[in-house]
Amino acid sequence: MSRRFVSSISRLAVIGLVGVGISGCIGEDLRHGYQIDQAALATVKPGMSAEQVLQILGSPSTVSTVGNKTWYYITQNSRRTVLFLGERVEDQKVTTVYFNAAFKVERIALYGLQDGKVFDFIERTTPTSGADRAFLGQLFRGLTKYEPFGSGSGTSIVPGAKNGL
To answer: For the whole model, what pTM was predicted?
Structure first.
C-alpha cells in the first residue's frame, strides 16, 4: 500500500472518530415535572374527593397555600441544542385541580405556555434581602443609619428632608 493511501485512511478514521464524539454532544430533549396521563385526567370529574384524585393522578407538583384549595401538576419540556449549554423551554403545561370548601373537585383547568410565566425548575435560589441595593448602599447601611443613595422606601432619615423625594 502506498503511503498516501494509508495517510488518507488515517485522516478519515480521525474525522470519523471526532464526528462520533461531537454527535454525542448535540441535542437533548428534557422533560421536567409531572408527565400527565390524558386518559387518567379524563377520569377526574367534578365532585370527586381529594383522595380519589390522589389515587388517579398521584401527588401534585405543588399545592396552593393561600385562598382556595388548588393542586398543580406542572409539566415542562425543553430542548438543549448543544450539551452543557443552556436549555430553551419549548412547552409548559400546568394542570390545575380546583377544590371547593368540602375538598371536592370543583373544576379542572389546563394552562399552557401562552397563559403565563415560565416556571423555573432548575435555578433553585431564594431571593435575599439587599440584592436590589448597590454595594456602597449596603456598606453605608451596615455602618450607619444614613443611606446616601436612598433606601428606596420613599422615606428619608435626614432631618428636614421631604418624604418621597
So the answer is: 0.54
